[in-house]
Specification:
single chain, 311 residues, alpha/beta, Rossmann fold, 2 domains, six-stranded mixed β-sheet, 11 helices, 38% helix, binds guanosine-5'-triphosphate, binds magnesium ion
């Protein structure tokens, strides 16, 4: 009996904001890498995670949701998603079944203008496509096939469609099998136990940003950037301690007041939750010091964007 060849390559997770791309990445990795929230436009950068099995390895690239962008920051986010499609072997289009099935129930075309924007980005990439119908736990199952049929009509070269619930982990193995089938024969690019190339510094900044998304409302999370100014590991081996100093950059004094909260209560909440999660990520104690700074209109300036990782 001959063993099947090893396969290895890249797959991009593409879709509208809030479809569950980051949740699926975490479900596949079996641990949290990408931050998630119930608010759209949570992911801002390309987040790559590595999954290795006996006969294949895939680098999964989570991307910001594709949307109609108005600010510099949003345009940079959409560019990050669009450009990710050109560097991969496979595209996984995640659709939120709640919004797609609702359109069927209302007798509207399944794909809205926003979905069409996603379809066009995928079409231009000319990459093999897997459609993933996510949030299956929230929709009546008879609505699944009509949605998949509509996607197949729009994208006739689609290779596979998989209904899943990323949140519950249902169907995740089926997605992996479909991805594997489309990867090139190639030796592994990373060691078996590799999980990501992202720095701990970046991941801690993301954890803080996630807590801001969870605890604040309206425009506040969108106006926040987290900038780790010092990541001090000098006591990591001796005392099992990493000291992180980070700025939360907001755009207006009123937002600063919200992020700090009455008597500093909100900042304390954000800081405590972010510290606990950073400790489990780094596997040691973390001292996390957060400072809130105002930088007017950072999300509209080139300098501000550089700070959050966009050139
Ligand atoms: N019920 C249910 N909720 C889900 C499922 N997958 C994701 N969610 C929820 O949907 C919301 C958005 O999930 P994310 O993973 O942050 O979505 P995303 O596509 O990465 O969003 P952006 O980063 O904003 O583009 C979160 O509240 C998730 O918990 C699912 O299968 N079922
Ligand atoms: Mg995301």
């Amino acid at each position: 009996m001959t063993t099947p060849p090893f396969r290895c390559g890249y797959a991009a997770l593409i879709g509208r904001p809030n479809a569950g791309k980051s949740t699926l990445l975490n479900a596949i990795l079996g641990q949290k890498l990408a931050i998630t929230s119930d608010k759209p436009q949570t992911t801002r950068n390309r987040i790559a995670g590595i999954h290795t099995a006996d006969d294949f390895q895939v680098v999964l690239v989570d991307t910001p949701g594709i949307h109609e962008a108005r600010t510099e920051l949003n345009r940079a986010m959409v560019r990050a998603a669009t450009s990710a499609t050109s560097d991969v072997d496979v595209i996984v289009w995640l659709g939120d079944m709640v919004t797609l099935a609702n359109r069927i129930e209302r007798g509207e075309p399944v794909l809205s203008r926003e979905d069409e924007n996603v379809a066009q980005v995928i079409e231009r990439s000319e990459k093999p496509l897997i459609f993933v119908a996510n949030k299956l736990d929230l929709v009546p199952h008879p609505l699944v096939l009509p949605v998949i049929d509509a996607i197949r009509t729009r994208m006739p070269t689609m290779k596979a469609a998989v209904p899943i619930s990323a949140l519950k982990g249902d169907g995740v193995t089926a997605v992996l099998n479909e991805i594997k089938a489309l990867l090139p024969e190639h030796p592994a690019l990373y060691p078996k136990d590799a999980f990501t190339e992202l720095s701990e510094r970046f991941l801690v900044a993301e954890i803080v940003r996630e807590k801001i998304f969870h605890f604040t409302e309206q425009e506040v999370p969108y106006s926040c950037a987290v900038d780790v100014v010092k990541f001090d590991e000098s006591e990591r081996t001796s005392r099992g301690l990493v000291k992180v100093f980070a700025d939360i950059v907001v755009e207006r004094p009123s937002q600063k007041a919200i992020v700090i909260g009455k008597g500093g209560e909100m900042l304390k909440r954000i800081g405590t939750q972010a510290r606990l999660e950073s400790e489990s990520l780094l596997g040691c104690k973390v001292h996390l010091a957060l400072f809130v700074k105002v930088e007017a209109q950072w999300s509209r300036s080139q300098n501000g964007l550089k700070r959050v990782g966009f050139q």
